[in-house]
Amino acid sequence: METKLSNTSSPLYAVIDLGSNSFHMLITRLVADSVQIVDKVKRKVRLASGLDDNNNLSEEAIARGIECLSFFAERLQDIPKENIKIVATATVRLATNREDFLTRAEQTLSMPVSVISGTEEAERIYLGVAHTTYCNANERLVLDIGGASTELTLGSGYQIKKAVSLNIGCVTFNKRFFADDYSNQQADAAVAYASAELAETAKRYLSMGWQQVLGGSGTM
Fold first, then answer.
1. Residues in CB range of 53: below 8 A, 6 or more apart
2. CA 119 to CA 125: how far, in whole Å?
3. How does residue 125 score in pLDDT terms, banded at 50, 70 and 90?
4. Interior/surface letters 139-177, b for 16+ CB within 10 angstroms, e for the rest
5. What's this model's pTM, rounded to 2 decimal places?
6. 168 and 175 in contact (C-beta within 8 Å)?
7. Where are the beta strands (DSSP E) in 124-193?
């Protein structure tokens, strides 16, 4: 069913997240000083599965992404361009041919796409969780396991103390360790690789400490 987006004088706002596993679109409006969700769409594009050993993004993966963005573009027609923000994350950061994808994405959306850094991604994830989750703990660790990266952020309330993004994700791990089959040996190799990648961050974070852990990803 098509959603009616322009049934009130309150302006609409939209955010699109071009993630490594899923693309998300959130459309909201401000009503009585609170944010009201008008429409929310999630499409599993698995963009990261198109990265080869040289981080070149395949044409098939790009085509899946553009098909999804064509659908999103139809929903954006009634929203002022200045009220729209579009960001891309780990897979587009890693892709050696990112400009090919970005050019086609921006043509499809008729809007610029911002490629945010891993640290910025981690910080935004933390603030999103902090503003939408009730938590008594003063010190919190927020985790997000994405398709091609994992973000870990320590903070207190709305204040960020440390934010890190690591190039380990559910889609890239599936492709690297479990592309053909699943075995205990493959699982052990995946765990060992993840542990090595996390070791330095874990040591630093453990020294800082936290009171509660919150996960903000579909994988969890």
1. none
2. 10
3. very high
4. ebbbbbbbbbbbbbbbbeeeebebbbbbebbbbbbbbeb
5. 0.85
6. no
7. 139-145, 150-156, 159-166
